Structure formats: C-alpha cells, structure tokens
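for the writeup, i need someone to sanity check this before i put it in the appendix. the sequnce is what the collaborator sent (i think, or maybe the updated version? ugh). structure was predicted straight from it, no edits. if anything looks off just tell me and ill rerun, i have time this weekend
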Amino acid sequence: MPEGPEIRRAADDIQRALQHKPVLDVHFAFPHLGEYEDLLKGAVVTRVDTKGKAMLIRFDNGYSIYSHNQLYGKWYVRNAYNYPKTNRQLRLALHNEKKSALLYSASDIEVLRDEEVPHHPFVSKVGPDLLSETVTMEELQQRIRDKKFHRRKWSILLLDQGFVAGIGNYLRSEILYVAGIHPSLRPIDCTDEQIGKAAKGMLELMHQSYTTGGITNDLQLVEKLKAKGMKRSRYRHWVFNREGAACFVCGSEIEKIMAGSRRLYYCPVCQAL
C-alpha cells in the first residue's frame, strides 16, 4: 500500500502534467460520477493537494476530485491517451492536450465542492500531513503526549491516520527504530529523549523517503552499501523487511512480529525494553 511519500510524489507528477491547463476530457468508471464529466471538462487544474494517503485535484470552477488509493490504487502519468498495458481497471482519467493522468484499481473517488472538502469523513478526521503542512518538532511532541494518544501502543498509534497522516507499515518500523523504541511501548512509557527522537524521526524519515523515492536508511551508509554491490531491497531500510539480517548499527539479528495484523520489524538490542 502506498504511504504518504509515495502519494505526494504521485501528486507532484500529476501537478506537473495538469496544472494551469484546461482538462479537455474526463472519464469516471463509476456511473454515479458520470454527471461530473461535463462539469469538469474545460476546467483548469489549479493544484494537487495531499492529505496523507488521500489526494485532492483542485479545479478553478470550485470543485475538487478526492481520491484514496487504498490497497491497490495506482496513478500513471502518460502522454495524452497513451494507456499502459495492465490488468488493472481504469477508474479515473483526466486528459489535456499533452498529458493524461490515469488512476487504476482505486474505488474511493468523489467529486466535492471546495467548501465540502474540510467536512469529508476522511479529511475532517485525518491528522497533520508532514509533507504538505508546516509542522514543527515541538508540535509533534505535544501531539504525541496528548491524552488522546499517549496511552496507545506505538505499533498501533503510528498506523492511525488520525494521529499523523501518511505513515504506513514501512515508516512505522523505521520511525520506532531511529527513536530506539520497542514496539510494545506506549508514548507514556517513553523518556523525553525517545519522544523527541520519535518526532524527529517522523519528520525526517517522511521527507527523506519523499525525496529519495522510499529510502529511509542513513544516506551515507547507503552509498557505502551500494558501492559494495548490495541490492536496493537490502540497503533501503534500517529494519523493515530485513528479518534475520544484521542490524547496521549493532549487528544483532532483525526480528519480525505482527502488530495490528501487519508486519513490524525491529532490532531487539537497539530497541530493547
């Protein structure tokens, strides 16, 4: 499932292709959205926003297309009407003179008036988006300590989009690792230093993953590992998807557990109780 950095990168691609240009053709796969096709034809895309794993394509006529990729959704940006060869189902297509933005497989698509967007069930409840909004470390630390969140296990809390938007499975493991926090702990169990490291990790890893296309490991270490011929899948992350491999810091064996019905990876020494 794509996480916040992947959705923001897709939004950037779509914005480069569509921004400041009129949409000449619109196609929705779902019949209940068909009435909006003529409404959006000729409208100009003003910007593309993200809210965690959701995307909002804004138009100059006061409407926005809301979409959430869910588990299987995927955006493609292609030359106009150049469709990819895929077994996925096309759900939304936006075409201008030169480019097409195509959403496949996702089913969570709506057309909203701009004033309706803040009241949308997902948008109204989702936490801050660290890639699209200005959020300080101090604000994040306050949020971590908030009574709504501080007694919940980190392993569950980090996947709650109402806490911080856009954190998914790989970022969860990586944030806990750089903060030195065992996945069974809660914020209330942690030291001020750990909470500070967690806030720093959220901000830095989200931005690093966005700029590097998904790398959360130390970038200097990554260059050394690449020079040795290590595959991307083995150097990309500190701990995620590295069960049985040696921790890059202490050499201990990375372990995998299930938390919230999803895989979580950690170092039993660097993240000791």
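The first strand starts at residue 25 and ends at 28. The chain has a mean pLDDT of 96.
thx in advance!!
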